[in-house]
TrEMBL record:
Pfam short name (any one): TPR_4
Protein source organism: marine sediment metagenome
Gene3D superfamilies: Tetratricopeptide repeat domain (1.25.40.10)
InterPro entries: TPR-4, TPR-like_helical_dom_sf, TPR_rpt
Full protein name: Tetratricopeptide repeat protein
Listed GO MF terms: identical protein binding
Length: 300
């Protein structure tokens, strides 16, 4: 184990010098001599995620024995591995069956669970299978006991799921039910710049209130440009790319879907393990077009 610590420390030094080839080799040597140390597993998995080497992360997990895989420290990384490889159905299974401990970023775990739910629902929403999409999205309003977190009564962060349930009901020809979900998404309390704020914007647009929707869009743009200061908790929970993600959605409601996707691609290139960004790049084109169907600032 002493050699493993040495290799790990040298890897950190190499990474700080931007010598990432050397850092990766040293991390691998540290892992090979660690005897399967789970703290090193988490550190190496995070490093691989930041270097956009997501397939290698799956191989790293495969090297763990069955007992190691039962640990919550592993489960926290495994869920993100699956999300970053766009394996949303497997991620849903992971987040609904594994036990996550209270005090280990359980709110962040639940946000990842919602991300997995939405990714699993994308193809069904786009394909018109409204019943299946409704069943999947309804789970996003649940709080599985294995995650050990309950509903926040003031900032539940349910707006993304509520909005998408509205889309499903609208596609199913049920306008009253759609309006109910859109309104729930629009009036939810949240922090500016969060995914819930982004979906508040979409909900106001779907309700036909372009003024309110565009007001949120302008706030998202100001946050991304540095003209307003975001809450520090926002970046801690969602990562550095969250403001650029919101900026992209703001372009979508202005009738600029290509610009939105380009912003998301840039955000993912800068932060390969960004939350919510890959999810929206995986959104089917037809659904993206549907969401941006009523731009608040249409291009001439």
């Amino acid at each position: 184990m002493s050699h493993s610590i040495l290799f790990r420390n040298l890897a950190i030094v190499a990474a700080r010098r931007d010598d990432h080839d050397a850092a990766l080799e040293l991390y691998r040597r540290a892992w090979e001599t660690s005897g399967g140390d789970l703290y090193l597993f988490g550190e190496l998995d995070l490093y691989l995620a930041e270097r956009d080497r997501h397939a290698e992360r799956l191989e790293l997990y495969d090297q763990l024995d069955e007992q190691a895989r039962t640990r919550s420290i592993v489960a926290m990384r495994r869920g993100k591995q699956l999300l970053d490889n766009s394996r949303y159905n497997e991620a849903v299974t992971e987040y609904t069956t594994r036990t996550f401990l209270r005090g280990e970023q359980e709110k962040g775990v639940h946000h990842c669970y919602v991300e997995a739910i939405i990714g699993a629902a994308w193809p069904h929403i786009d394909g018109g299978d409204c019943e299946r999409a409704r069943q999947i999205l309804a789970k996003g309003l649940e709080y599985p006991r294995n995650i050990n977190v309950g509903r926040d009564s003031t900032k539940p962060n349910e707006a993304p799921v509520r909005y998408l349930l509205g889309v499903v009901e609208e596609k199913a020809g049920r306008p009253d039910q759609a309006r109910e979900h859109y309104l729930a998404a629009a009036i939810e309390l949240h922090r500016d710049g969060s995914p819930a704020a982004c979906y508040e914007m979409l909900a106001w647009m779907a309700l036909g209130n372009r003024a309110r929707g565009m007001a949120v869009a302008h706030t998202l743009e100001q946050l991304a440009r540095g003209e307003r200061r975001p809450h520090p908790y926002l970046e801690w929970l969602y990562g550095k790319a969250i403001l650029k993600f919101g900026h992209g959605l703001a372009q979508l409601v202005k009738g600029r879907p290509d610009e939105a996707r380009q912003m998301w691609r840039e955000a993912l290139a800068e932060n390969p393990d960004a939350r919510w960004v890959r999810l929206h790049l995986d959104m089917p084109d037809g659904l993206l077009e549907f969401i941006g169907r009523c731009p608040g600032w249409p291009e001439e």
